[in-house]
Amino acid sequence: MARSEYYDDPAAPVPNSLVVASSAAVIDGEGRLLLQQRVDNGLWAMPGGAMEMAESLPEAAVREVREETGYEVEVVGLVGTYTDARHVIAYSDGEVRRQFNVCFRARVVGGELAVSDESYEVRWFTPAEIERLPMHHTQRLRVEHALRGGVPHAG
To answer: Which of 8, 51, 92, 146 could make an SS bond with 2 (beta carbons 3.0 to 4.6 A apart)?
Structure first.
């Protein structure tokens, strides 16, 4: 299923669903971040997806990392919450979503790298390598926050 992302675009379709989702910033001991190149839009992103009814947001992040990368992880912190109403995601099946995403910090505790049917490629990247990757700017913001240690606080 194809995916198109819009940001602050008056031509964006009107959302018809609100989805609670989680993602994970998995950082290794060398400071590299685990990213996947998504099949639905060809862009690089942290693993993540919609929370299922019988799980918590941290459990959803752990499941999504396992499904999309092959790694078992544990959540060790919070990067931030992302709820910008100007960000709209449209899917080829007609769903147009606003997404409430909580991004967690996680570390690998097992498993091995495996590419799922949701990804073209899964790799570890240094911060310098990430700068050159095609990535939606809302995802890039989360990556920047993850690499800095979290969302900056006012005040």
So the answer is: 92
- Whether the full predicted model's pTM is greater than 0.70, yes or no, is yes
3 state SS of 84: coil
Q: What contacts 24+ positions apart, CB below 8 Å, involve 123-128? A: 123/34, 123/35, 124/28, 124/30, 124/32, 124/33, 124/34, 124/35, 125/32, 125/33, 125/35, 126/30, 126/31, 126/32, 127/31, 127/33
Q: Measured on CA atoms in the order 41, 98, 48, 9, is the torsion positive or negative?
A: positive
CB within 8 Å of 103: residues ≥ 6 apart? 22, 23, 24, 25, 46, 48, 78, 79, 80, 81, 82, 142, 145, 146
Q: pLDDT tens digits, residue range 102-143?
A: 999 999 999 999 999 999 999 999 999 999 999 999 999 999
The amino acid at residue 12 is A
CA 150 to the chain's CA centroid: 14
What are the tens digits of pLDDT across the range 58-101? 999 999 999 999 999 999 999 999 999 999 999 999 999 999 99
The dihedral over CA atoms of 101, 127, 109, 48, expressed in degrees to the nearest 10, equals 20
